[in-house]
Design brief:
By secondary structure, the chain is α+β, with helices and mostly antiparallel strands. The protein has one domain: Alpha-Beta Plaits (2-Layer Sandwich). The protein has two helices and six strands. The strands form two sheets. It has a four-stranded antiparallel beta sheet with strand order 2-5-1-6, covered by helices on one side. Strands 3-4 form a two-stranded antiparallel ribbon. InterPro entries: Dimeric_a/b-barrel.
Length: 113
């Protein structure tokens, strides 16, 4: 089975006023279903109130992330699923619940991890 990252950037969450409670309820319901199905690994969101730092190999720390890369923000869920088709189905359920498209990526298998 492969692990899939289902994610969205913060800017994708354009939720009409008054619908946030429904988004929270619906997205948590999908996560509970994933847990019950035994496919949930972990999930969460990037805490935008804590700025990133870039840590070099020598331990030097610089404020901010890679200056050339778009900021990493938003929410994510990792599921372990037997097929890409099933991963797409879960991503579609999360997209419906979150009211925004979800990006789907597969983690490369590393037997040492």
């Amino acid at each position: 089975m492969a692990k899939y990252l289902i994610s969205f950037p913060s800017a994708a969450m354009v939720v009409p006023e008054g619908e946030w409670d429904a988004v929270v309820r619906d997205s948590h319901a999908v996560i509970e279903e994933a847990k019950a199905a035994g496919v949930y690994v972990f999930g969460g969101g990037i805490d935008a109130s804590v700025p990133p730092v870039l840590v070099a190999a020598d331990g030097a720390v610089a404020e901010g992330g890679y200056p050339w890369a778009p900021p990493l923000n938003g929410g994510f869920t990792v599921l372990e699923i037997p097929s890409r088709e099933q991963a797409i189905a879960w991503a579609a359920r999360l997209a419906k619940a979150c009211r925004c498209d979800q990006e789907l990526r597969v983690f490369g298998f590393d037997p040492q991890s």
